[in-house]
Design a protein that fits this description.
11 helices; 5 strands; 12% strand; binds adenosine-5'-triphosphate; binds magnesium ion
Length: 210
């Protein structure tokens, strides 16, 4: 197989799910099986740390108050602003999303030796660019009570904040309609690991049959 063909054939799976559904945990398990992982949350974090590529544009759009003394995005202040103002949320996303997509594609080019790629995209349902990039969509699903319990249990958000984020995200039923594959993540970590192992076999076989 020529290198170009290998690149064209590489399976790229978009992994999505609501807040606290278990996306990062599932991605770590896939990584343990040897999958290439691209994490758009991590990319967003890098873009908004001190010296990150999004900082100047955020300062220009929102004002210097939103950049902390350390030069990084003031995440707490921005989160409060976004909770209160859907327009501000859109504005921030219009800055971040093209940058995140560009970085994800650059990382993809570096992961050509991996059997397949899992791209963790919380906002996959809202992102036409990412939906076009991925060949399959894997949804990590659990009920809202489980999401709230996990998010509050992890610390950093209370129940009201967790429910606000859930209400802002794509509804569960709508997200599930996008799914080629679903991980049901309401039971414990063993159940999650078993489902990931099955999907790993399936994705590896798809890769080889290309
Ligand atoms: N099957 C499970 N059993 C028990 N705990 C779990 C399970 N899956 C995930 N968790 C825990 O729930 C919390 C949320 O999981 P995780 O961070 O993977 O979710 P996420 O979808 O990546 O969240 P976010 O949307 O905030 O990025 C973590 O503390 C994780 O350890
Ligand atoms: Mg996560």
């Amino acid at each position: 197989m020529r290198h170009d063909d290998a690149m064209a054939a590489q399976l790229v799976v978009g992994l999505t799910g609501g807040i606290g559904s278990g996306k990062s945990t599932a991605a770590e398990l896939f990584a343990g099986h040897g999958a290439g992982i691209i994490d758009t949350d991590q990319i967003a974090h890098l873009l908004t740390r001190s010296g990150g590529k999004a900082i100047d544009a955020i300062r220009a759009a929102f004002g210097a108050d939103f950049i902390g003394a350390d030069g990084a995005l003031d995440r707490v202040r921005m989160r409060r602003r976004i909770f209160a103002d859907a327009h501000a949320k859109q504005r921030l996303e219009s800055i971040l999303h093209p940058l995140i997509f560009g970085q994800a594609k650059a990382q993809l080019a570096q992961l050509q030796d991996k059997p397949y790629i899992i791209v963790v995209v919380p906002l996959l349902a809202e992102s036409p660019a990412f939906r076009q990039l991925v060949k399959r969509t894997l949804v990590v699903d659990c009920d809202e009570a489980t999401q709230v319990a996990r998010v509050t249990g992890r610390g950093g958000m209370d129940e009201t904040e967790a429910r606000t984020v859930i209400a802002q995200q794509t509804p569960r039923a709508e997200r599930l309609q996008l799914a080629d594959d679903v991980i049901h993540n309401e039971a414990g970590l063993d159940s999650l690991a078993e489902q990931v192992a099955v999907l790993h076999q399936r994705y590896s076989a798809m890769q080889n049959s290309n």
